[in-house]
């Protein structure tokens, strides 16, 4: 029941939050989703074609995977791919995330009457791991969350004038919803308009006749206008039949088909059950998951005394939860637009929340920091790399680690500071995660300028473990013509050097690749492995982290004749 949130704490944590979201924004190892590289591929191919539409792609079945707004955003921010970098692609996502936090602050400050509560709501939302993971990379989630949230935050901000608006607000809501659909999917019109209907229903004191009489047409205006904005894709795309087949039927309607046994059984059990949807939705809060659980429990216990705004926030969450139980493919990611509502509820109940949820958050932060410290120490002070180079952290990294652990320990010891330091600890944990991989962003993890120059315009074969993996290698070898082979074959050096004229191969630390006499190594870097055997995991837990977590990647020129590309499938596609 302790823990006030002062202006000084809010200002310091705000600065920390801004730094966290900007630090390592261009990192290849930033927490993200696997969709980022396919999206980059579509942007690059569409820009190379010289037209905004139709969307272009070399990947089978992945072309019209999302509406064009996100790809147009990438084309614009990279200046038609002339300034191709993760930073240029990602900064609009951070801008969207920042704007969502800002308008959440304005809305909560307005109806709560407290600036600290508004700041707290924005910071809590930014501290959620799902916000950090999906709110920075080049994905469709940041614009979707912003445009869907904006009308509901406007209702909370303007109150009666927005609810009673006969034309302006419904049009505003329709445009906002339409831009959300144009960024992610037309399917979001269902939960958005459903939630809007519940808002109006509560405003009319739960009177269905009054809601139908005074507000139904407003919901229809918003819904029809939103779908009209989305329909612009069909109007402007030269091949609307492909959009209908690939996006409407394949990407959306296909999510209602039974994935395992049958629809009802999938609803109640398995990886797509409603129970897992509930768990993954709560887990979007990351380190604050148990704080969120305690907040919802407090809302339930005090349900008779909830004010109007709290009820509206819960109705928004309920609407999305109900709608997204209907598709057979269920994921907590679909409920990202309601995470600002969760953050607002936490902020409103902050002073009354019990400490156990925050102590669990601090304990989790302490475990993660201790693990990162152990891994980092093992990497820097062990000799696993041999003659391959040196894994060196700057003094700033160790200062950050020490300061983060100190702050978390203070939060665990001093109850009065537990809540505030748990919030700060979320951002510090994300910063230390980025800092722990910083050596790979330097010379260790990149090819030299000489190597890049040597393979300019040449065909190079690289390992692929997911679609469009070559887009990552385009950042490492700009200008090369990249082709993919199965990543599981990366250590089969004999086969690779006999099949491809220029190929990237993997070798464990401490051993040199066995090459032919006429083969030549033109480049070398360090790469982090993605999959490990049970034996390797056991050895890593025993301290042999570097030996199994990383490999040396060598770029080798061989005498092999290039294969006929017309007969060889690119694994990256």
Provide a concise account of the structure shown.
This protein has 573 residues and is mainly alpha-helical.
* Structural class by sheet pairing and helices: mainly alpha
Per DSSP E runs of 2 or more residues, the count of β-strands stands at 5
β-sheet strand percentage: 5-15%
- What value does the Rg take, in angstroms? 26 Å
Give the number of domains: 3
Low-confidence parts, pLDDT < 50 over ≥5 residues? none
Going across the biggest sheet, name each strand in turn: 3-5-4
Overall shape: globular
Average pLDDT score: 90
Query: What helical percentage do the residues reach?
Result: 55-70%
Report the sheet with the most strands, covering strand number, pairing sense and barrel closure. Answer: 3 strands, antiparallel
Q: What's the total helix number?
A: 26
Question: N- to C-terminal separation?
Answer: 55 Å
InterPro entries: ArnT-like_N, LipidA_mod_glycosyltrf_83
Subcellular location: Cell membrane
Pfam families: PMT
Protein name: Glycosyl transferase
């Amino acid at each position: 029941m302790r823990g006030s949130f002062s202006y000084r704490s809010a200002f310091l944590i705000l600065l920390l939050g801004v730094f966290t979201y900007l630090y390592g924004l261009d990192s290849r190892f930033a927490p993200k989703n696997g969709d980022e590289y396919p999206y980059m591929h579509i942007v690059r191919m569409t820009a190379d074609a010289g037209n905004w539409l139709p969307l272009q792609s070399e990947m089978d079945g992945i072309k019209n995977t999302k509406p064009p707004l996100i790809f147009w955003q990438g084309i614009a921010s990279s200046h038609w791919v002339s300034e191709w970098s993760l930073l240029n692609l990602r900064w609009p996502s951070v801008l969207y995330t920042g704007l969502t936090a800002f308008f959440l602050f304005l809305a909560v400050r307005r109806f709560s009457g407290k600036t600290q509560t508004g700041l707290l709501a924005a910071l809590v939302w930014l501290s959620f791991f799902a916000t950090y993971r999906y709110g920075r990379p080049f994905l469709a989630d940041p614009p979707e969350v912003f445009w869907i949230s904006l009308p509901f935050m406007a209702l909370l901000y303007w109150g009666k004038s927005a609810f009673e608006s006969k034309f302006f607000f419904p049009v505003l809501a329709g445009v906002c919803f339409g831009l959300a659909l144009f960024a992610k999917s037309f399917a979001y019109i269902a939960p958005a308009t459903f939630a809007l209907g519940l808002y109006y229903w509560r405003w009319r004191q739960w009177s269905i006749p009054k809601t139908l009489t005074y507000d139904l047409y407003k919901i229809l205006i918003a819904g029809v206008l939103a779908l009209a904005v989305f329909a612009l894709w069909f109007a402007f795309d030269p091949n609307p039949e492909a959009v209908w087949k690939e996006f409407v039927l394949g990407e959306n309607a296909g999510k209602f088909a039974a994935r395992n046994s049958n629809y009802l059984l999938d609803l109640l059990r398995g990886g797509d059950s409603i129970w897992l949807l509930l768990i993954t939705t709560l887990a979007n809060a990351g380190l604050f998951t148990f704080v969120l659980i305690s907040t919802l429990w407090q809302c339930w216990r005090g349900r008779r005394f909830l004010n109007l705004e709290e009820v509206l926030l819960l109705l928004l969450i309920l609407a999305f939860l109900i709608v997204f139980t209907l598709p057979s493919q269920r994921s907590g990611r679909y409920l990202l637009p309601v995470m600002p509502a969760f953050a607002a509820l936490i902020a409103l109940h902050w002073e009354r929340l019990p400490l156990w949820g925050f102590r669990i958050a601090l304990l989790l932060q302490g475990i993660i920091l201790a693990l990162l410290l152990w891994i980092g120490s093992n990497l820097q002070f062990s000799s696993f790399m041999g003659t391959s180079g040196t894994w060196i952290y700057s003094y700033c990294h160790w200062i950050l680690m020490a300061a983060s652990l100190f702050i978390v320990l203070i939060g665990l010891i001093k109850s009065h500071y537990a809540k505030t330091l748990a919030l700060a600890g979320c951002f510090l944990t994300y910063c230390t995660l980025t800092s722990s991989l910083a050596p790979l962003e330097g010379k260790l993890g990149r090819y030299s300028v000489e190597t890049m120059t040597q393979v300019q315009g040449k065909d190079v074969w690289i390992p692929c473990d997911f679609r469009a993996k070559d887009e990552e290698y385009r950042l490492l070898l700009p200008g090369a013509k990249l082709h993919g082979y199965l990543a599981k074959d990366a250590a089969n050096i004999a086969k690779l050097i006999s099949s491809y004229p220029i190929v990237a191969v993997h070798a464990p630390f401490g051993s040199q690749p066995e090459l032919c006499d006429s083969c030549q190594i033109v480049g070398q870097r360090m790469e982090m492995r993605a999959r490990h055997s049970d034996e390797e995991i056991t050895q890593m837990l025993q301290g042999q982290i570097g030996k199994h977590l990383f490999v040396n990647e060598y770029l080798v020129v061989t005498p092999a004749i290039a294969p006929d590309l017309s007969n060889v499938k690119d694994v990256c596609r």
